[in-house]
Amino acid sequence: PDGWTILPVGSAVEEIQSGFACGRHNKDGKGIIHLRPMNVHGDGFIDLSDVRWVEVENGHRLRPGDVLFNNTNSPVWVGKTALVVEDKEFAFSNHMTRVRSGQALIPQFLAKQLNYLCVSGYFKLQCKKHVNQASISSKFLSESVPLRVAPLNEQKRIVRKIEALQTRSKKAKDALDQIPPLLEKFRQSVLAAAFRGDLTKEWREKNKDKIEPASVLLERIRVERRKKWEEEELKKFKAKGKVPKDDSWKSKYKEPEPVDTTGLPELPEGWVWARVQELSFVGTGLTPLRSEPRFWDKGTIPWIKSAATNQPEVSKAEEFVTDVALKETNLTIYPPGTLLVAMYGEGQTRGRCTELKIPATINQAMAALTFEGLTCQCRGWVKRYFQKNYEQIRFLSGGGVQPNLNVGKVNRLVLPLPPLAEQKVLIEMFEERELAARSIRELVREGIDSFSVFNQSILAKAFRGELVPQDPNDEPASVLLERIKAEREKNGATTKGEKRKMRRGGK
Length: 507
Known about the structure:
The protein has 507 residues and is of the alpha+beta class. It has helices spanning 9-12, 107-119, 122-126, 138-143, 152-177, 179-196, 201-207, 214-239, 276-279, 293-296, 323-328, 379-388, 390-394, 407-412, 420-463, 477-491, 496-504; strands at 5-8, 15-18, 32-35, 53-54, 61-62, 67-70, 72-73, 81-83, 90-92, 96-100, 128-130, 133-135, 146-149, 272-275, 281-284, 301-304, 313-314, 319-321, 339-342, 353-356, 361-362, 366-370, 414-417. It is built from 17 helices and 23 strands.
């Protein structure tokens, strides 16, 4: 644009100075903060969330208005730049370069332009690539990186406009960031209403004479489960070449513990309280010995760890065991549709539930809930029960330093069971709302992603001279630079000796 000029960074600024290395950091606040690459945020500000201190007498310092350039980082983030605004003493590492803008440049204009060169990919193309990192040397920054210098008054207008637009952009992004947590609250409120029976209250009124009560369903499940157990026992007799003499063996069958409803909320008409063990078969897994290569080498059978429960479903494995491990241990291959519940684990993992989408074995840190016959129709309801009651289930665990659930506790968990027809209606309601929520999340994600593009477009227009109107009365940048140069020569500030002294100086 008219009145602008392009110069290497070193010819447009007052000073370029590298930082210093220090291997003796502390987190105790002793000395001064030593800024490192992680302290320069990609959005162009100093991030003090994780800082180290150094106890040094010498070394260069930063002051408000200094521009801090990151020389060494990944190819994507090499060259990220931030403006120092905090009025406190900082040192900076040898992976950083301090740039002082001088009289011809507003520090914000310089910092935003250098950061734009980073996010637009310029430094990624120009950097030297090393093992696991990339670099832009201070020498290259000084002598080869082109800086567009606008008239001083235009710089001020550009900076004001950029900051105004970015402030509006941030407010909009912050508003969008609030939507996913609101959607999760909405999801939990839907689940809560479902388990109270509120979602289907009107449906029950219209269909109360047409639906089978859950107590009848539960009795049918119990009959089916007992029949299956008897069939399995007869198979065991047959495998041993035996025939039972009478029915006394049937007395070994253990009915699920009855639910004590004392203190439990009243349920809607047609609902009943049931235990997890009545609606699923609860098992677990194990970890084959790591010291036995025959259990792991060239394995093809998926083996799932409890961290997988942090995902809504499991469709792939990171580790695999062999057929030998399956034969020589008590590993079980669980079918797709199995619900996995984390029993061990720190943080937020314990109590999480996910659905297995592939046949797989699991480790001992999870309970596996499988479904057969009539119980298959209850899988969706049981899954939502674990999702709804995650926090309560998580804190049912016990066991000292590392609290855990166990298969027995999972078996005894009590949940409200609606009639089967009502379960189907509720699952449809869940899925409709979850589909809508996913659509909103996708729109929000697209919106949030667009802000980085929007902010880059602001900077692109700014440094093409298209963001604010030009004023023909502004003094051209070249004239200002020549006058500054003349003043320095007059004062002797550009002699080599003075330059060295200035570069060695602290503040």
